[in-house]
Amino acid sequence: MNHKSDANDTVEQRRAEAAPADAAAAGEAGEAGEAGVVDLVTNNRAFGLRMADTVEGRNKASLLINRMYAWRGYAGSHTLAEDPNRITLTATDKGDAVGTLTLGIDSPLGLLADEIFRDEIAPYRQPGRKLCEITKFAFDPRVRSKEPMAALFHLSTLMARDIHGCTDLFIEVNPRHRAFYENKLGFTSLGEPKTNPRVNAPAYLLWLSYAYVTEQINRYGGNPHAAAGNRSFYPLFYSPREEKGLIARLRENR
Question: Where is this region: Disordered (predicted)?
Fold first, then answer.
């Protein structure tokens, strides 16, 4: 994949098509819809990011998760229950969910990853640090552009880092997907893979520091021309200026 070309095309197209993030920076992007749903970014292509905290929103995300997990051969039926420490985010195209992930905030109950990776996670639970995890990630492969996926990860960063004060992110991934997360977002693998009973498949535990994410956004976000040879998602993230508008929008709707 020619990532530089993809980055230039998608970001320049976004700027030309109603510049949604610029509007967000001015406090104009996104409208509150039905109760519990906040549309954060939309544009002329009807692409949006949603923070959905309704039964209907979680059900739509669950349908996508089960369809994509079954396609990958993962076991089980996966549902999203209401939980104050878990936030479901979706990317939508013309109103349909095309991508979803769930952000889990550490609490006295711990993270889902603690079930099999407690020893690997324990050293990160230190004063001044707050942990979180991404679970239930699924994206419709028919969406060819990488921009919606990058935007969804960026939204999860804002929710975790700026709204909940998290410093460290974990994710459990199948071994065949490990290189994707390492190359596109900068995750680091911790230890050897173990069997994840929730999907009956092997999984690596990956870790990412939000300090690193912030550094990459400040360097590359919204500026693909400065990213020659960079294959990561960060040139497809919003710029620091655009981030400020999105963070303000999230805080308004807490």
Answer: 1-30
